[in-house]
Amino acid sequence: MKLSDFDFELPEELIALRPARPRSAARLLVAEGGMTHDAGVRDLPRWLRPGDVLVFNDTRVIPARLTGERRRESADGSGVAKIEATLMERAGSNAWEALVRPAKRLRAGDRITFGTALSAIAGAPEEGRVRLTFDRAGPELDTAIGEAGAMPLPPYIAARRPPDAADHSDYQTIFAEHDGSVAAPTAALHFDDSVLGDLEAAGIGRAKVTLHVGPGTFLPVKTDDVTDHKMHAEWGQVTAETAEALNAARADGRRIIPVGTTALRLLESAATPSRQIEPYEGTTDIFIRPGHVFRAADGLMTNFHLPRSTLVMLVAAMMGLERTKALYAHAIEQRYRFYSYGDASLLLP
Known about the structure:
Layout: E1 27-32, E2 35-40, H1 44-47, E3 53-57, E4 59-61, E5 65-71, E6 80-92, E7 95-101, E8 111-114, E9 118-122, E10 129-134, H2 138-148, H3 155-158, H4 167-170, E11 178-181, H5 193-201, E12 205-211, E13 234-238, H6 240-251, E14 256-258, H7 261-270, E15 280-284, E16 300-303, H8 310-319, H9 321-333, E17 344-348
Parallel strand pairs: 1-17, 3-12, 3-14, 4-11
Antiparallel strand pairs: 1-2, 5-6, 5-8, 6-7, 7-10, 8-9, 9-10, 12-13, 13-15, 16-17
């Protein structure tokens, strides 16, 4: 399949810069078989069956975007350069792999200061990626990053406004428990205590997995043939307890519906050809696109995604390409809000 198959025109004003308030006030596009319904997240219990199990990603987003200065000795003042680093992956108690901009301003051995209390030595840049070795380690480093860092808003939001104090809570799900993501599992941002109470009263089950979302989720697909695209690996865990509960639900004929593409990708990585979900701990670079045979998921709740992205390809894998195009056209016509802070869809093929 060609990358152009997953393209569409999106009016810029439909890109949400702030979430709905309260969270569950967001709209919900329900695609049930061949039928399309306009609803709200608060209506979710009526579109699910008693016994269905929603699976949430309980990762916590860290304030992974650091802004600092690189200083070198220079007579003309050119030794100072502003550097922005987005932490990607822990590389030790005192080190992180990071994406930096502009990478051309860095060389191995440069010191970058972030605010007044944190600094790091840069390794050799490679395709915009640099290892940063900080001046502190372990929990002390975590605390310093928490104080110096900003929430890593997606590029399509960050380009239009800077992150602020509201994003520290807005860009975090109420399930967030395990530090490690640089992007939120955004479909779960719609859930609050009110809708969770309604779901419980309706007999809808709940389970949790952990997938630490990396910045690769924002990287564009650059290959014309989508099968040539390589996904970035992300660390995840499905506990034995969760696997047992989901297998019991499947044995009872109950549906497993991940909330978000991250939870879905992890479950599909943990599932066997016989549709059993096994305990899982490690990295996954699974690329779900049309032709994928789903082993774990019976549906999906997800936001509306970037054109030409791997996430649109995942939706097309579940719903079919033509159906996906029709759903996105409907969402645009009905003025649904798109992307991380936007509205949601419930996909029930």
